[in-house]
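User: Can you predict the 3D structure for this chain?
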Amino acid sequence: MNGAAKPTRVMVCVTAQRQCERLIRAGSGIACGGALSVVHVAPVDQPLLYGESVANDSLALDFLYRAARAFNADMIVEHNDKPLDAITALAERIGAQCVVLGISAAGTARSFSEALAARLPGVRVHTEL
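Assistant: Here is the predicted structure, written as structure tokens:
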């Protein structure tokens, strides 16, 4: 055994912010050549860029798509008022072995990551600083 990391199916959860590229980069490193999916869940009846106009949705989608493609990832964008439910279902559907999340300014990522881990036994939930 050579100790090399084995390819992993990774799902990276992002918001429509440029800083999320670091999450995609971290997910790519964890994937070790395995499949990588970038996921964005926005509330129903709200634009992708929270607080912005619906007209800016195309800019948000373009940014997310380009960031995903730079790391050979596919991209999933979904509107859902229950992000925990949506992310759980998406992780199960794609067979994610690891889910990467960022830490929010409000500090809510820890409770979200703990709830996600409880719903996805056997799936690593990685919170990136």
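The chain has four helices and five strands. The domain at 10-128 is CATH 3.40.50.620 (Rossmann fold).
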